[in-house]
Design a protein that fits this description.
six-stranded mixed sheet; ATP hydrolysis activity; four-stranded antiparallel sheet; elongated; Rossmann fold; ATP binding; 12 strands; transport
Amino acid sequence: MRYGDKVAVDDLTFTVKSGLVTGFLGPNGAGKSTTMRAVLGLEVPSAGKALVNGRPYASIPRPMRSIGALLDAGAVHGGRSAYAHLACLARSNGIGRARVADVLDQVGLTDVASRRIGGFSLGMRQRLGIGAALLGDPGVLMLDEPLNGLDPEGIRWLRDLLRSLADEGRTVLLSSHLMNEMALSADHVIVIGRGRLIADTGMDALAGHFQGDVLVRTPLPERLAGVLRAHGAAVVTEEDGALSVRELDAARIGELALSAGIALAELSLRGASLEEAFMRLTEDSTEYRTESGTGTGNRATRKGTVR
């Protein structure tokens, strides 16, 4: 998919499976939102196709019953009430008004259902957008940055909601920049960079691809740290006196400690965090970065899949 000379999505192929919460990760400008828009027919690929349950979105009758999506919580008529907004969407897809009331209750907006959306906070708009995605009781949910603006209670509510939907056999695709929350929410991850697929793997396996550090506990931490540094290790003393060691594997650390006559109380490998794994995977695909490289600048059970 191209915008002039810029390639936004490049030969990207993946399948989002039912029964899992799938995280959709990538740096700013990686093509996540463009990909989601292509699934909904809002962008037309220059080659290839995006399918929901084997069909293009535009060919699905009453599509909200098949796939619910949140792309931009701010894309609503501020003069309408929350109830009127959902009721309008429901009518367009042959959904009864009783479902509108149910969804407002599900997302915690019953008490403000008659209020104009223009007076809503970002978190309330996010809840409304999630409610719109749930309105058709679809088998597929696709949410772009739904955690933005949610307070801690809201984040936990959404995490539990997505888990319950996946447990019912539904397909859930979730994009977010909150790595710690993604680690708690997602079972599987799709990582893209510059529009291309970088990783398609289980959440547990992602960090496991990268060695983190080795945790070492000893009665003689300062002495051991000196020995390890002399052999090229990067050693950091943690608050409890344990050593965090990089650049040497656990077996070599054990050999050096034995040779120096230093007893070890613990020697364990710690995998990289999700954030570390993400940064390493996408370090060559980050289009906008600061000089440090650490920021960004320049109810019935239904099943489905997204391809």
